[in-house]
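Throughout this chapter, every protein is written as a compact record of paired, labelled lines. The reader may check this reading against the record printed directly beneath this paragraph:
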Amino acid sequence: MSSIRTSRTRLLTAAATGVLAALSLTACSDSSGVRNEDSSTNASATESPSDSTSSGSGSSSRDDAKPAPAGSKPAGNAPATKTPTTSGNGKTGTGGKAVTCQGSNTKTVAAPLNRPVNHMLLTVTNTGSSTCYLYGYPAVRFGEAQSVPPVIEASHPQAVVTLKPGESGYASVNLSAADGSGSQGRTEKSLAVYFHGPSGNEGVGAGAHPSLPAKGVYVDDSLKVTYWQQSMDDAVSW
């Protein structure tokens, strides 16, 4: 019995010593400022999302989901959208859409030549703001003539004569036979020049009425014209 009591006494003494040690440790922690791990864990668990994202330069996922304000630049290196530029007539480039040369967008000058003899040079200058095409050959009418003279087929150019604003095209008119073999010779003091369309047969737009020398020009039934040419030299070679 005495041994049982001794063992029980030792157990009670050991338990009491453990309790006292625990109480002593708690009192020491509170007074010395040692961090309480339980309270630290609770504070971290109850921190709000707004507190965690407000610090630093980062943004919350909620902010990332917002659409960019209108007119803002693209993020990163993505290029900004560029609106294509066009001319006033809706076409890109200079000069706009090409049109057919006619009396309203050109100026025509008629000048008799010394060489070749009995020839006259027609010069048509583009006075418009767009490129124009000189199709076919000039349909000329001297005085009150009821028909236009024929064209010299061999003078057909390789390409349609194209005139940018300010540029000129040319055609020559064989007024009469140099050897005097022509018939129905007469002097004419007025001239009208009409223009062809793309098909080469139809007349288009307004005609031109270039002035002639005061004394007029002599023509006969050998009268003929060349096709429109891009250069003066080509025109007067016929």
Remarks:
- DSSP finds five helices and eleven strands in the chain.
